[in-house]
Amino acid sequence: MLLELAWPRHPRSIPRSQRWPANLGLILLNSLCVKLLFPITTLALASWVKHQQWGLFNQLQLSAWLLVPVCVVLLDLAIYWQHRLFHALPWLWRVHRMHHVDPDYDVSLGLRFHPIEIVLSMLIKLGLIILLGVPVLAVFLFEVVLNAMAMFNHSNLKLPLKLDALLRKLVVTPDMHRVHHSQHYQEHNANYGFNLAVWDRFFRTYVAQPKDGHDKLKFGLSHWPNAKDNRQLKGLLSLPFRSANK
User: Fold this and answer.
1) Which InterPro entries does UniProt cross-reference here (predicted)?
2) Of 23, 60, 121, 127, which residue is 20 to 30 A from 229 by alpha carbon distance?
C-alpha cells in the first residue's frame, strides 16, 4: 500500500474514498463468513489429516524438504485452474465478475471477492488438503504467500521494466496481472496465475502486455461501465444475481 503510494503505475480514476469502503467491507465480511461457516481452519484440518494418515502424500511418506515445496506448487496449480473455471463456467463467472467490475486497480482489489467465491474456494482448499494429505507447514506457507502475492500483483505499483521482466520469469508481477483486469475479452481471459508465472506460459494463457499499453489500459467490464452501485457493498453483494447495470 505504501509502495503504490510512492510509485504509482497509473493515475487513479476514482478516489479511494469511493472504492475502499466497499472493498474493505467485503474483506471484513469474507473473514466473518469463513469464521462462522467453517468449524475448522485449513491448518487444523491439515494437522487432523496427518494424524489420521489420510491423503496421497501420507501414504508415500516423502521427506519434508521435498513434500512441502511440492505441495505448495500443487496448491498453486489448483488455484490457477480454479481461477480458470470461475471464468469458464457461466454460473461461477457471475460470482467472480464482482472482482472484475471494479473500474480501478490497486492493492484493495487483491482481497475483493464475493463471499460465495470465498466459501467455494475454501471448500476446494479443504478438499485438496484431505485428498493430498498436505502437511501443516505447506498449508501455512501457501496461505501466507497467496495472500501476500494477491496484494502485490493487484497493487498500483510501478516496477522498473527490467525488474518486472526478471521477476515475471518466476512470479506474477503487477504489470502481468494488470492485463487480466483489462476490459478486452481476450485479455481478461488470460494471465490467471496468482503466484507462479509458469502456469500461464505452460497452459498458453499468457499475454505479455495489454494491446492498448499500460497507460491507456481500461479496467473493469465494458458492459458495466457506469453501474452506480458497483462501489457500494449492497450492490456488490447482489451483483451475481443481476444483469448489467441493473
Assistant:
1) Fatty_acid_hydroxylase (IPR006694), Sterol_desaturase/TMEM195 (IPR051689)
2) 121
State the Cα angle at 192 between 203 and 213, rounded to 5°.
105
Contact between 182 and 68 (Cβ < 8 Å): no
Angle in degrees, CA 225, 108, 87, rounded to 5: 55
Residue-wise pLDDT tens digits, 159-206: 999 999 999 999 999 999 999 999 999 999 999 999 999 999 999 999
**pLDDT one-digit tens code per residue, 91-106:** 999 999 999 998 899 9
8 Å CB contact between 214 and 173:
no
Average pLDDT, 10 consecutive residues per value, the chain (246 residues): 90 85 91 88 93 90 89 97 96 94 91 94 95 95 94 95 96 97 94 96 96 91 68 86 69
Dihedral-angle region of residue 158 (phi above 0 means left; psi in -120 to 50 means alpha; beta otherwise) = beta
Spatial contact of 95 and 113, defined as CB atoms under 8 Å apart: no
- Is residue 207 within 8 Å of residue 188, measured between CB atoms? no
The DSSP secondary structure of 132-187, one letter per residue, reads HT--HHHHHHHHHHHHHHHHHHTS-B---HHHHHHHTTTB--HHHHHGGGBSSHHH
183, amino acid identity: Q
| Helix orientation angle between 64-88 and 136-153, rounded to the nearest 10 degrees | 50
Strand runs (DSSP E) across the chain, as ranges?
Answer: none
Q: What is the DSSP letter of 122?
A: H
Q: Is 233:18 a contact under the CB 8 Å cutoff?
A: no
Nearest Cα to 119, choosing from 172, 82, 77?
82
